[in-house]
From TrEMBL:
Start and end residues of each Disease resistance R13L4/SHOC-2-like LRR domain: 574-845
The name this protein goes by in its record: Uncharacterized protein
Keyword vocabulary terms for this entry: Nucleotide-binding, Plant defense, Repeat
Taxonomy, superkingdom: Eukaryota
The NB-ARC domain, residue ranges: 178-345
Length: 875
């Protein structure tokens, strides 16, 4: 965990040296020394962290290193502030420090040299402390599984076939489908993978299958092995052989064999047999590959069951794999499981109503996680007093963690397996409120602004951050919330993981949560040392800000949109005291229409979020925010009037608001997202200079009477998403002009279209999502749309077509998965040939639609994906 903070500081130093090497002059050697020392710390911390739970001395030593890492970051940012405050007039653009000759003369390099010298003394004192308090001997004593807490946790997690709980509540649907796969007549060996978040019951479900009577009858021999993170292939092979019960060689003979010899022996013993292997708790796909060779495919219907937290391991473990994602329990299933554990019967017969009410409230908090329900039921099984139940209810996660070693272990092993970027990214999620639906796009922008993503050659930071996001989903640490247009739109974190993440983040002084409706996560009577703060349910006073760390890097608010108070004004008056801020997110707090000039003092700011805050005008001092990457001023009821200085924000990547006039963006070469501009304003831009634009949303202007042309958009060869919402009187010119936009994957058009081009499939070969609404097409669009080779989601909104019949040919829509048809009486019949739309899994029609559809489509459910044009337009 500390390694994440040290690694982060090390990368800041590396970037600082690269970017400002020429300007640092005589202190460059000191900065380089500091970087080298942080590198050595990084190596040592990784091994020391595993011992900190066993040794308070190691814990204190790691805490000192954390403070040094934070102070190193402060030295860098303080130096940049001194350069800015001493030399750059507020009306000028802030250039690179290395290019500013006046800066070299006026900035006193002695200050940064002095700060580094103080850090040097503290760093050089670390070996003395280590020797004085015998940290080396602590490290040596910590080696070996007998005294290593993580090793003990892993040992406690190790499962065996005889210790698995055989009575399972819930997952009947999964059990049925998995059992069918194990027992089917396919003679070739294949793998059944069960994956999901820790605590969902993967091992329990595998055990239920392993002990099923029909499974026992089918297979000649069965074996169970727990793999875990720190597996040893030689040991695994020995345990598998033992579990199968092969006895032609003694244990002593087997132990003398090398891995290859054990593989040959196991392979030979399984020849001609029908076998079942359960490989429980696999973390890396290499683990299965390390002993897969020993399992022959001899056409006897053999099976391998793998349980894992990783979606990647589940899907890529074998060429022939059936993957089953384990779901969370329903409330009824959770309540039945709780009653079994707490009351000894599934119906809570004879239990007083108040205990039932409290029990239901706590079970609801478990959010369908079986492990949490089981531990909760066991904890309350020997408590009969109402007061004790209330005490557990008020601090449910603390009680569960104290009662079961498996609860913290649920998080610790998964967390420790992450690299430092993923660790910081996951801990950051704990800033968001409980049960909060986190917008994925916003989260990506925040991670990039925080510096949690390390730049790689030929990869942009947003794509790298998305990779990290999907890796956390893959590892079952993040739950998917909603899906929109085939992509994850929102996510959330299970309450249990969030509570454990808050605890880890607080140990690092990473965050402080102030919730006046409940309580803050720290002592509000003293200055918080935390680097990031979140504000929930705000009131009039801002005393919490007075106890904030002056070195605060992030301030995020989560108030209700339209909350009527003057907190925004007070925060505006106070936030300039936090000159190191990188992220300022104050969405939803009404304020004056003009933002204070003081905002220009926050020169480190990379993310400024004032969504639905009614800010209409930006001050000219915005020019000082030369590191700003995201500017979110969107307000659904008001257009924004930005100053000319916005064109000088060279690092701006995402710009959100309703812009109809006076927007200069031609010089913003790094701009990736632009929402929302009028069509008239868009036509005034020199779009050739916006070559990095990936996402563009345009709103029709009532002032123009011309047809909307795509020739300006055609120059945006990297564009991936385009949405254009025209007035009903407006009309799109030919889509043929989008030929150069071959990267376009998401196209949403609201307005009349003259005609679809005959070679639409060549114009947009990579289009995955398409919306047409109010397009009033005269010809049936299906014969052209069905040729789009990559189309997966199609939404044909109201009045997309003025004809009566739709026809889809046998070879049409080969990849289409979701179809939404908003047709009522205007279209009468939809003819679909038998082999069309082979992958269709979601079909949506209006409830009162009289459209005649093929019989085979009547059983296709409505899609879970959200494809709502109006909702998306104001997201």
């Amino acid at each position: 965990m500390v390694d994440a903070i040290v690694s982060f500081a090390l990368n800041r130093l590396t970037d600082f040296l690269i970017q400002e090497a020429a300007f640092l002059g005589r202190v460059r050697k000191e900065v380089q020394w500091l970087k080298d020392e942080m590198g050595w710390m990084q190596c040592y911390v990784a091994s020391a962290e595993e011992k900190q739970n066993d040794d308070p001395i190691v814990r204190k030593w790691l805490n000192d290193i954390t403070k040094i890492a934070y102070d190193t970051e402060d030295v860098i940012d303080k130096f940049i502030l001194q350069v800015h405050d001493g030399n750059i007039p507020p009306t000028r653009c802030f250039p690179s420090m290395s290019s500013c000759v006046k800066c070299r003369k006026k900035v006193n390099l002695h200050d940064i040299g002095k700060d580094i010298e103080e850090l040097k003394i503290r760093i050089n004192d670390l070996p003395r402390v280590r020797e004085l308090y015998q940290l080396e001997s602590s490290r040596i004593k910590g080696e070996g599984s007998s005294s290593n807490s993580l090793a003990r946790l892993r040992e406690l997690r190790r499962t065996t076939s005889f210790s698995v709980e055989k009575k399972v509540i819930g997952h009947d649907d999964g059990t049925t489908s998995l059992l069918a796969k194990l027992l089917d007549l396919d003679r070739r060996r294949f793998v059944v993978s069960i994956y999901g978040m820790g605590g969902l019951g993967k091992t329990t479900l595998a055990g239920k299958l392993y002990h099923h009577l029909e499974v026992k009858r089918k297979f000649d021999c069965r074996a169970w092995v727990c793999v875990s993170q720190d597996y040893n292939t030689h040991d695994l092979l020995l345990r598998i052989i033992s579990s199968f019960g092969f006895t032609t060689k003694t244990t002593k003979e087997l132990k003398r064999m090398n891995e290859e010899g054990l593989e040959r022996y196991l392979h030979g013993s399984l020849q001609g047999r029908s076998y079942l292997l359960v490989a429980d708790d696999i973390w890396k796909k290499e683990a299965w590959l390390s002993f897969k060779r020993a399992f022959p495919d001899c056409n006897k219907g053999s099976r391998v069951i793998i349980t894992t937290r990783s979606q990647e391991v589940a899907e890529d473990s074998d060429q022939r794999t059936f993957v089953h994602k384990l779901r969370f329990l329903t409330f009824d299933e959770s309540w039945q499981l709780f009653c079994e554990k707490a009351f000894g019967n599934p119906n809570a017969n004879g239990v007083e109503e108040q205990l039932k009410t409290l029990g239901m409230e706590m079970v609801q908090k478990c959010r369908g996680l079986p492990l949490a329900v089981i531990v909760l039921g066991g904890l309350l099984s020997n408590k009969t007093q109402l007061a004790k139940w209330k005490a557990v209810r008020d601090h449910i996660w603390q009680h569960l963690k104290k009662d079961s070693i498996h609860i913290p272990n649920l998080f610790v092993l998964s967390f420790n397996d992450l690299n430092y970027q993923l660790k910081l990214s996951f801990l950051y999620l704990s800033l968001f409120p409980e049960d909060f639906e986190i917008k994925v796009n916003q989260l990506i922008q925040l991670w990039v602004a925080e510096g949690f993503v390390q730049q790689e050659e030929n990869r942009n930071m947003e794509d790298l951050a998305k990779d990290n996001f999907h890796e956390l989903i893959n590892r079952s640490l993040i739950q998917i919330g909603s899906v929109s247009w085939g992509r994850v739109a929102t996510c959330r974190v299970h309450d249990l993981l969030r509570e454990l993440a808050i605890e880890k983040a607080r140990e690092l002084n990473m965050l402080y949560i102030y919730d006046q409706m409940k309580h803050s996560t720290g002592n509000s009577s003293v200055i918080s040392p935390c680097r990031r703060e979140a504000l929930y349910s705000p009131k009039e006073n801002c005393l919490w800000l007075q106890q904030s760390n002056p070195s605060l890097r992030s301030l995020l608010s989560f108030g209700t949109y339209g909350y009527k108070c003057d907190i925004m004004t007070k925060i505006t008056d106070m936030y300039t005291g936090f000159r190191y801020l990188r992220v300022l997110k104050l969405d939803g707090f009404p304020t004056k229409q003009t933002l204070s000039e003081e905002i220009g003092k926050l020169i480190h700011l990379k993310y400024l979020g004032l969504r639905e805050s009614y800010v209409k005008h930006l001050p000219r001092s915005i020019i000082n925010l030369q590191r700003l990457q995201t500017l979110d001023l969107f307000c659904s009821s008001m257009e924004i009037v930005p100053p000319d200085e916005i064109s000088k924000l060279k690092e701006l990547r995402h710009l959100f608001g309703k812009f109809y006039v006076n927007l200069e963006i031609d010089s913003l070469r790094k701009l990736r997202s632009l929402k929302y501009v009028s069509s008239e304003l868009w036509n005034s831009f020199n779009t050739e200079k916006l070559g990095n634009l990936r996402e563009l949303w345009i709103e029709g202007s009532v002032k123009t009477t011309k047809k909307f042309r795509f020739d300006s958009i055609a120059k945006l060869e990297r564009l991936e998403q385009l949405a254009v919402n025209l007035d009903r009187k407006d009309c799109f010119a030919s889509l043929q002009q989008l030929t150069r936009c071959s990267n376009l994957m998401d196209l949403r058009l609201y307005g009349k279209i003259e005609k679809l081009p005959e070679d639409l499939h060549n114009v947009l070969p990579n289009l995955e999502c398409l919306l047409l609404r109010n397009s009033y097409l005269e010809d049936d669009p299906m014969p052209l749309l069905e040729k789009l080779p990559s189309l997966m989601i199609l939404h044909l909104g109201s009045e997309f077509y003025s004809g009566k019949n739709l026809f889809c040919s046998a070879h049409g829509f080969r990849r289409l998965e979701i179809l939404k048809l908003d047709v009522k009486d205007e279209v009468e019949e939809w003819q679909v040939e038998e082999e069309a739309m082979p992958r269709l899994r979601g079909l949506s029609l209006p409830e009162d639609s009289s459209l005649r559809i093929p019989e085979r489509f009547r059983s296709i459910p409505s899609p879970a994906d959200q494809c709502d044009f109006e909702r998306d337009w104001f997201e």
